[in-house]
Design goal:
about 100 residues, mainly alpha, 4 helices, about 0% strand, DUF7041 domain-containing protein, DUF7041
Length: about 100
């Protein structure tokens, strides 16, 4: 008797690979006159898009900030905080723009 023949079928469990899809999402420019409402709107879009990580939210907001707005948060952008970067960015912008 020779070696067993491979009939292409296997008793092994099929491998399942998880796939993560990216959702195209770009927030509108920041609304200077109503920054809290702007954050409410994009947080709704984050929810619909399945975006829940602080770092991902942070990196979606930073590119839509104009130069004069970036000056309020330049330290956070240059050296992203390890803890709650989006929340820190959001709170700073709300505080700074509410006073202006």
């Amino acid at each position: 008797m020779g070696p067993p023949q491979d009939d292409g079928e296997s008793d092994a469990e099929p491998s399942v690979s998880a796939e993560i899809a990216r959702v195209a999402f770009k927030p509108p420019p920041l609304w200077r006159n109503n920054v809290e409402l702007w954050f409410s709107q994009i947080e709704s879009q984050f929810l619909i898009s399945g975006i829940s990580q602080e770092e991902t939210k942070f990196h979606h907001v930073v590119p839509v900030l104009e130069e004069d707005i970036l000056s309020y948060v330049s330290d956070l952008v240059r050296c992203k905080p390890n803890d709650n970067p989006y929340t820190q960015l959001k709170n700073r912008l709300i505080t700074q723009l509410a006073d202006s």
